[in-house]
Amino acid sequence: MITRTSDRGRRLAVHILLIAGAVLMVTPFVWMLSTSFKSFADSMKVPPTLLPSEWHFENYAKVLTTIDFGTYYLNTILVTLGRTAGQLLLCSLAAYSFACLKFPGKNVIFLALLAVLMVPSQVVMIPSFVIMRQLNWLDTFYVLIIPGIFSAFGTFLLRQFFMTLPKDLEEAAKIDGCSYFRIYWNIYLPLSKSALVSLAIFTILAAWNDLLWPLIMTSSEDMRVLSIGISSFQGQHSTDYPLLMAGAVMATLPIIILFIFLQRYFIEGIAMNGIKG
């Protein structure tokens, strides 16, 4: 009887902690959505109020007319799709090489690749800018997409997953005369759907929210992305919070919908990498 009571107490405590954590996670999104319908004066009230005194649905229309939202949205989609497709292809090829092939210096090269994860991106920003300028890639889709398709994290993630797959499948394929690329394409990739989806979600989030790289590498309005467009509502002396939040809602909504549809594969991939990797 005492054991049952203690188990119920633990479960209750765990549920209370989970509910509190869920409230903390959801509160910023609720506040963002509420502020997007407020007037500027209403958003500056002290003390602040959760619900607007008057609902201003026209804030979303103002976002579309104040900035070139359609161009920013299209550029962001193209950059995100390009980076995601490139990372899935290149990282999976590199991960298969490190996990399954034997070549001189493999471990040394892999350790050098992992060392890249320890270097902050801001440290190499100036050398990267110089290289992009010498290649005449500044203010083009090349500079927004191509440098972003190389990922040490993605290679590491997929390598750990590939190493958990049974080696018997690869050996049987070799006996049947399959080449290394065919083994990679017809055996490893179909079995790695959850890991590929996990990497795709990480890449999409990083590309969709990227601000510093596009801000430095692009200068024309035609090449700006969504994060830069939304940041334009934040001025030096004042910030139009309702329009800023309305733009943030429209920018966040596709990512939320995407995660809802892919969360099963994402959680499965992370769990398998965490248990077996």
Automatic annotation (TrEMBL):
Residues 73-262 form the ABC transmembrane type-1 domain. Gene3D superfamilies: MetI-like. It is found in: Cell membrane. This is Sugar ABC transporter permease. GO terms for biological process: transmembrane transport. Coiled coil: none annotated. CDD domains: TM_PBP2. It comes from Paenibacillus rhizosphaerae. Belongs to the binding-protein-dependent transport system permease family. The chain crosses the membrane at residues 12-34, 72-96, 108-129, 141-162, 183-208, 241-262.
